[in-house]
Amino acid sequence: xxxxxxxxxxxxxxxxxxxxxxxxxxxxxxxxxxxxxxxxxxxxxxxxxxxxxxxxxxxxxxxxxxxxxxxxxxxxxxxxxxxxxxxxxxxxxxxxxxxxxxxxxxxxxxxxxxxxxxxxxxxxxxxxxxxxxxxxxxxxxxxxxxxxxxxxxxxxxxxxxxxxxxxxxxxxxxxxxxxxxxxxxxxxxxxxxxxxxxxxxxxxxxxxxxxxxxxxxxxxxxxxxxxxxxxxxxxxxxxxxxxxxxxxxxxxxxxxxxxxxxxxxxxxxxxxxxxxxxxxxxxxxxxxxxxxxxxxxxxxxxxxxxxxxxxxxxxxxxxxxxxxxxx
Amino acid sequence: xxxxxxxxxxxxxxxxxxxxxxxxxxxxxxxxxxxxxxxxxxxxxxxxxxxxxxxxxxxxxxxxxxxxxxxxxxxxxxxxxxxxxxxxxxxxxxxxxxxxxxxxxxxxxxxxxxxxxxxxxxxxxxxxxxxxxxxxxxxxxxxxxxxxxxxxxxxxxxxxxxxxxxxxxxxxxxxxxxxxxxxxxxxxxxxxxxxxxxxxxxxxxxxxxxxxxxxxxxxxxxxxxxxxxxxxxxxxxxxxxxxxxxxxxxxxxxxxxxxxxxxxxxxxxxxxxxxxxxxxxxxxxxxxxxxxxxxxxxxxxxxxxxxxxxxxxxxxxxxxxxx
Lengths: 327, 323
Known about the structure:
By secondary structure, chain A is an alpha/beta fold. Chain A contains twelve helices and 14 strands. In chain A, helix 9 crosses helix 10 (268-280). The longest helix of chain A is centred in the N-terminal third of the chain and has 15 residues, at 6-20. The model of chain A has no long low-confidence stretch (mean pLDDT 97). By secondary structure, chain B is of the alpha/beta class. Chain B has twelve helices and eight strands. Chain B is globular. Chain A binds chain B through residues 25, 51-52, 54, 56-57, 59, 61-75, 77, 92-93, 96-97, 101-112, 141-142, 144, 165-166, and chain B through 67, 98, 100-104, 108, 110-113, 117-118, 120, 122, 125-137, 139-140, 146, 158-159, 162-163, 165-166, 169-170, 319-323.
């Protein structure tokens, strides 16, 4: 079992796909010699050359759009958008083009494009380099949305994203790139649409994504000391959503907390709460609690940033609030 | 060098074929206007009456395997590339037999088999994907070209500049066909373009440019053939500027309050590409009427075909969201 960081796991999935398949190539800003702003693609230029590891101009519309065009010709491009914040620049191409070509053509064409991007607070870049915007894309029929939280998951899910015949928005979390884990020797594809129970528990389900999976696991350890048994469920793919896994967990625990780093208002947690009340209302012993960033752009000053985004303590508070309710 | 004459490069037979194509597009679009006004057709329709020579001249220069992206004004490109009028008309009627099976409509005509990667209702929206399709051809070493149609208005949008920059940087086999009809919806060139010669915009990226009279189908075909050859031979993308005229409103039903009526009348009289070709070829009245009758018949048959087409089931709306 080799140990890989989350960063290396992303690179491994890309490299394995590119070794296997000429149709897979990557492009993005600074991904070649520099290896990407997060170092994810470091060394890939040497192995695959500049045709398949393509540095691009700072042109998000054209990068994503070129990916769409190549994908429509049957290639499997993986485009890197340096920061989630910059997906805004390519929004038209992602939302109006990538997501809709198949539909508008009445099923004549596929767009097997993967758009990798990353974000996450905790390093004080201010308001335009660390947002978590995954929920925007879940609102768009035609897109799939993945948000992996561990090296094993990111490797297996990225593989599945590359080989999915639909456009996939693939979210990585900046603060997770350094975390390490023993991963299987052979890359095991993880199906898109399948959640993961990270920790089993009986009293409350915490549905968490990205960094908050790890915060939730910390909170769960602490709750354990209060005698509260917490199950941590990571949906891993936000669209399609593993409703079956989610509902099974909530029906078991009868309580639910949703936790993500993105702004709580209209965040993905709101959708989780809606699905849970639609499908498991009679099993709930308490309202669904939400944990997410406060309603402000990300501030620069570290004390303010720390205040705005959620941490394990916020998850623990939410767990305590929900178990304090009498069923 | 001066002895080179403007020699006819196409046979008269081929030019008559172009005339037939242009007439088909014209009669098709007139019928579309008529059926829309009669309340038969749902949606938002834009016809390209006056611009037929660009569609026919460029599409007739394409090879099998070439692909293109069109605009909201797409009937002409689609028909000129060989999609049957029945399939186009059925699409406008929202039928399963339509070229997008009722999912697209006038602004989203597709025909992947014939290289039509879709008409795009977002101005400039299709340009980056053309750069990407051309990149795919280049990476795979396929002698194919990707072509984008767009209007002068699109040269003001970011996708135009990003896509042309990328295409030239990577020297991909793409041709960017600017149908310069001098209007962005109701806004004249004087209010949206600070320069007269739009080819300067492409030249700024170092791109090879060709400018042509878009009302002269033979000239368009010749220019497009050169452009496609240049791209196909790996010499990089080409910006093909076709100066043309929209002889009608922006959309079907547009009263064109913004347009000088006298000027429009004069443009219609002097800039009709069908009349120009007819004169050039000296097509006798009787023969022209015969060609016209054929076009009318095809169009009438397409309406019948479309009306008798199959309505999608409402719940078909949930198909094709994902592959």
